[in-house]
Amino acid sequence: MDASLEKIADPTLAEMGKNLKEAMKMLEHSQRRTEEENGKKLVSGDIPGPLQGSGQDMVSILQLVQNLMHGEEEEESQSPRIQNIGEQGHIALLGHSLGAYISTLDKEKLRKLTTRILSDTTLWLCRIFRYENGCAYFHEEEREGLAKICRLALHSCYEDFVVDGFNVLYNKKPVIYLSAAARPGLGQYLCNQLGLPFPCLCRVPCNTMFGSQHQMDVAFLEKLIKEDVERGKLPLLLVANAGTAAVGHTDKIGRLKELCEQYGIWLHVEGVNLATLALGYVSSSVLAATKCDSMTLTPGPWLGLPAVPAVTLYKHDDPALTLVAGLTSNKPADKLRALPLWLSLQYLGLDGIVERIKHACQLSQRLQESLKKVNHIKILVEDELSSPVVVFRFFQELPGSDPVPTAVPVPNMAPSTVGRERHSCDALNRWLGEQLKQLVPASGLTVMDLEVEGVCIRFSPLTTAAVLGTRGEDVDQLVACIQSKLPVLTCTLQLREEFKQEVTGTAGLLYVDDPNWPGIGVVRYEHANDDKNSLKLDPEGEKIHAGLLKKLHELESDLTFKMGPEYKSMKSCIYIGMASDDVDISELVETIAVTAREIEENSRLLENMTEVVRKGIQEAQVQLQKANEERLLEEGVLRQIPVVGSVLNWFSPVQASQKGRTFNLTAGSLESTEHTYVYKAQGAGVTPPQTPSGTRAKQRLPGQKPFKRSLRGSDALSETSSVSHVEDLEKLEHLSGVPEPDGLEPGGPEPHPGAPPPQEAELTGAFQNGAQRPEDDRPQVEEPESLR
């Protein structure tokens, strides 16, 4: 490119192209600073400072721009990075620099150049998208062109609108018809820009019985138009969709055009499917858009061109009205808006433009054909074979459920059941969409919530493929990721109802219905002091659930657990994630209940022990004070005097008993230390209670993780063998401990050769328990008290 720049005669243009190339290279490929420089950068970049008097060079300014663009990437690692644009993007960016340079020319040269740029770009776009004899309006905001078209329609229908303004509209109010599937906020934007009240908007519903549920109902529209005419209103403009913003469906533009010609209504068409007009084969519904009064195109996303304006093509014979409406302008700066697109179209050429749009359509068709072979995936655009938008969602037919999502309730099914299953699938589809976006970022997927179908995933390569560089391999990877996630989705959906039933039937647990959680379910433990009617934060419950979460993580199972507030309150709950394998729900619920109950009991034991220790200390202080008073009375006052007491104790020693107090934590009582001083050992005390455990302890195979459901036969065999082994051990202990007088029972095991006879074994066992042998039955000499 440097050699090409040398051939340019104008040194300013050559220098501009060279500087742009160097600037883009620095912003895209330069290395980041070190950690110490990053610290200085954050101080100087985030906090505005005074403007330097001496100024800065271009490299320092571009470095500052780079720091501001990429400075937060370490803190926000999940945020998408700026895409690396190609050379065609550099051409589009060059157009903005050239526009500023061209504006410095003299007026005559500027007029000729801007007129040439505007006429060339308009001619090329009209021929590419089959819109003959049209004019073009270039605008930055996509909706701005439609607002100008509405203003043109007002001036065309109301001749005195320029002079009288809104007074002309008072007697015959205009009506703008929008589809219910139009982009959100479009009607409000038009009213704000035109100064019209909201009653001037008419929302036309979509089909409910026949055809796509995302297409405008033409029969209902005709009914609305007749009613407005009878009421003295003026039908002004109709906005049709060639590819709705949500699912990419196309209205029946041919029938809508006939209806608009009958009632004198301006027909405007917009949508992503208009890009297919550049292809050799175009569907009849989209091809009918070439006969409309105006259309809005967005070539920037379609071709992967940054900072390229949108274009509104229209047909009108009166240049004065178009000038009043703002569609044309005498200002050169307004005409220079087309310069970036003028440069980009020449760089790509007709073949390059068609190839990019064709590639995007092939990607959508490839995904659509692949998803038809995948189970549990429903495609919402099966009748739109030529649509470049694919919308799909995960679904699974459960017993007694409606396999096809519908807005009409099923007679044999409760509405609550329909809503619950709808929310369950919505949460799973939202999780699936987020997973696919992370695994295949080049796919450009979008997760959206439709009114009838619920949460769906949209693949629209026309708006993302040129920028992200999506290829056929990315589509194949996307299908493979969907297939890999299906077992997790199906298993989780099947276990949800079983989990709910187990939690409902377990004492102390409460099932929390959270429609936004994609996992197995949400459960909350109700402790003894839990106020079920309160929605406020529960500190005691939060402490128990925090300990429960820690215990569940220590089990190292394949399930994921997390703690968070309840869906409709501030109380803490345990959220159980997706299940990739068959999970033993009964064991899971029992483990949660037992562990939570154990944590609650331990916390209450600690609280009770604290109170008991406090009371024990107070009682010990009272008793020790009382013992000191008794010792003072017993020894006398003279013995308390330092010198006199020592002399008296030497002549007449006092045998004072050592008395103290010990606190038994297990029994919670205050005891004397006399036993400790006499026998030189502390008592055993009371045995602490056993830790509560589950009603059944599942035996796992080596390497088997918790909550895994093993084979039924192996479980039954292991339980039977363990029970029989325990019974045999109990029989042997009974036989060895309490034998019959005449020997072993009939059929019992043979005695060991070295074992003593039964009578001797009985005596030996008795002596081991502390009894005396016969030969030791002699008088015992009492040990002197001084030696004790």
UniProtKB/TrEMBL annotation:
Residues 748-759 have a biased composition (Pro residues). Signal peptide: none annotated. Residues 28-52, 683-788 are annotated as: Disordered. Its cofactor is pyridoxal 5'-phosphate. Keywords: Decarboxylase, Lyase, Pyridoxal phosphate. Residues 387-493 form the PDXDC1/PDXD2 second domain. GO terms for biological process: carboxylic acid metabolic process. GO terms for molecular function: carboxy-lyase activity; pyridoxal phosphate binding. Pfam families: PDXDC1-like_cen (PF22930), PDXDC1-like_cen2 (PF22937), Pyridoxal_deC (PF00282). InterPro entries: GrpII_AminoAcid_Decarb (IPR050477), PDXDC1-like_2nd (IPR055103), PDXDC1-like_3rd (IPR055102), PyrdxlP-dep_de-COase (IPR002129), PyrdxlP-dep_Trfase (IPR015424), PyrdxlP-dep_Trfase_major (IPR015421). Residues 499-604 form the PDXDC1-like third domain. Residues 28-40, 725-734, 773-788 have a biased composition (Basic and acidic residues). GO terms for cellular component: Golgi apparatus. Belongs to the group II decarboxylase family. This is Pyridoxal-dependent decarboxylase domain-containing protein 1. It comes from Panthera leo (Lion). The lineage of its organism: Eukaryota, Metazoa, Chordata, Craniata, Vertebrata. The gene is PDXDC1.
